Amino acid sequence: MNPVAQKIAPAKTKKPLPIDDPSYLFNRELSWLEFNRRVLEEALDPQTPLLERLKFLAIFSTNLDEFFMIRVSGLKDQIAEGVREKSRDGMTANQQLDAIRERLRPMLDLQMRCLNDEVMPQLAENKIKIVGYKDLTKEEKKKLEQYFLKNVFPVLTPQAVDVSHPFPYVSNLSLNLGLIVEPTPGIDYGKMDYLFKSNRFVRIKLPPNVPRLIPVGKNETSFALLGEIVAANVGYLFPNMQTGKCYLFRLTRDADIELRVDEASDILRTMERELHHQRRFSVPVRIEVADSMPDKIIKNLTKSIGVTDEDVFQIKGFMNIPDLMTLYSIDRPDLKDKPITYSIPAAIRSQENIFDTLKTRDVLLHHPYTAYSTVTDFIDQAAEDDDVRAIKICLYRAGKDSPIVKSLMKASQNGKQVAALVELKARFDEENNIEWARRLENEGVHVIYGMRGLKTHSKVTLVVRNENNKMRRYVHLATGNYNPTTSRIYTDLGLLTSDEELGEEASDLFNFLTGYSYKADYKCLLVAPINMRERLLELVEREIELEKNGKKGRMIIKINSLTDDVLIRALYRASQAGVKIDLIVRGICVLRPGIEGLSENIRIRSVVGRFLEHSRIFYFHNAGKEEIYTGSADWMHRNLDRRVEAVVPIKDEAIRRYIKKEILDQYLLDTVNATLLKPDGSYEKIHAESKKAEFDSQMYFVGKDF
Predict the structure, then answer these.
(1) Active site residue 457
(2) Which of 276, 366, 367, 457 is catalytic?
(3) pTM
(4) Fewer CB atoms inside 10 Å of the end CB: C or N, the chain?
């Protein structure tokens, strides 16, 4: 627990509390763990379809992997470098690590109990099962033995440890078997007898290109585990030797790439070198071991790998739950969420040429409810349209098989000027983006690799079209990545417009990104790090002044994360002034709501459900002259100061009304997916008065047409 939490006492006082006291901030890392707890609760809910429960268990694990690779590794770096600076809430790095472990271990126990005692048994009842090797028939074992010899044995490389064989490098997130191998009594090893006088620890890496779940016989819904198959046939690797029991273990390493851009003459090659270096030399931060692994082997592993006892997590059951997502691909719609229908906005449906629609009106896109083909078709039409002269786009996470990138290549082949800013520093997508960058360059696209010291996170496309000998600009600005795959599971907003002012400023933004031009006086766009922080603070201060002058101060902010202390202090001031504030924060939130004299006018809820909430919306009442903004930025220091972000005002009155009434207000009514953040940092489920009164905001949007 945060050591300063005891200071919080919601005393009934009208005296304003100091807004800069660190005790009035939650710890960032612990707040993130609470978000992941809410993901886990989706899996714990027996009302969630069975394969969806498995999916949420896998997401919980994947989230944790990234948390350890980035956040925990960062704390360990601080300790190693002797950094004494405390977090903004007043905790040292060591205190944070201790608190993380204390908070996390009970959550892992919950996860494994859910998997072992509920999800897997219920899947077996539905004829989807993992069969233990010892429970297989002789015939099944024989078939799997042949599978092992043909598909697995040739690629296995056992690595023994002794004075001439140092402990092998264990790659990040790899799954490994550890065992003790010893000579067989009575065997004459001849001239090499001296090599076989002692026991040795051996590590076997399970090949990542072989499926973890192997179908048993012809039954495609019964599986044996690759690790158990290797363990049962490990004698083939060690003829004339005695092999002990095999134990699974898995290592997590630091994956936070520090790009030395200041020294880089070629950022593409520098990134490739950094990726290679990170794969080979990143520091270990966590080791997961089978709970049956003997202490002696655990101590040998921790000493050899270079982690502490506190970094060891004993897993009671299946290790690396995301591997079980093979089961999710089984065709069992009865065990999954019902598919939703995707719609196309009526204004686009009514015209064959999307540009004809955008000449007369703006179009709001609300994914995943709006089919993502609206975006891919917009870019593809631009690539094919004879009147289009140029396409410019920011690509942050395009995915592995991107139709958008293919359209950009086609546009270049069709003689259009195409510029793509490919953000090579997009975490965990670096290799994908390097590949896309090379392919785009080969097709004549002008590729820019981001900016020194800044990560380009904005989601903007600019299309320039010749209409009656006059250039007209069309803009798509969104909250989500240009990735059709993730668009089916993320909620995001996008705006399609031909607004002249927005088009001009989008051109200025791209000139900044590609040519280092500098426009400081954006009137329409909020651009980080140029003017966004200042404009957001002005908008908050305006609500404060309106409230002080007897007018209604009101804000609704929907974001993924809230950690920026400057904006948090502004929100505290607004609350103290009487401004009513609703924050819809999916993930990390370090602001403490509901404290008398500080934040009693702030309510914070998190919506975690079937879809990953990703849209960002900023609503300001402005004494009835409502203003709404949407775009790529969360309210975090990194978004406002270290990234290029773009947020756009919604000018169309009908779209503003729709966002307020049909989107924001509905999130505030949710009683299925929403939890309220309490002053002590815990989250409380919001319950309807009755089952009939339950309201699911995410499902409310299905079939909506704007």
Answers:
(1) yes
(2) 457
(3) 0.91
(4) N
